[in-house]
Design a protein that fits this description.
Length: 105
């Protein structure tokens, strides 16, 4: 089952993916996730996705967008940095799980 979710934005996105109706700026998301996952959770996941996209954008600019294959030194650096960041996130969340279960690193 598909659901349509309207995510209200404070400001338009950088790429202009917004609609303005009655003074509200919003984007529409489509989801086929289980109904057990609320619209609020889907919106939060969407926002997390763009934080991750931003991280890759920064890494791409550092590597001069010349990733050819993983054997290439810059591509290897990107792969290594991605693994290190994922591990850091995991261990920080695990270390603080009891005192701050809502922590979103």
């Amino acid at each position: 089952m598909w659901r349509r979710i309207r995510l209200q934005l404070g400001t338009p996105t950088e790429s202009g993916e917004t609609y303005i109706t009655s003074g509200e700026t919003y984007i529409t998301l489509w989801s086929n996730l289980s109904e057990a996952i609320t619209a609020v959770q889907i919106a939060q996941l969407y926002r997390k996705r763009w934080r991750i996209e931003g991280l890759f954008g920064r890494l791409e600019s550092v590597l001069s967008s010349e990733i050819r294959i993983l054997g290439h030194p810059r591509a290897a650096l990107l792969g290594f940095a991605t693994v290190v960041l994922a591990l850091l996130k995991h261990f920080i969340q695990k270390a603080h799980r009891e005192e701050a279960p809502e922590l979103d690193v």
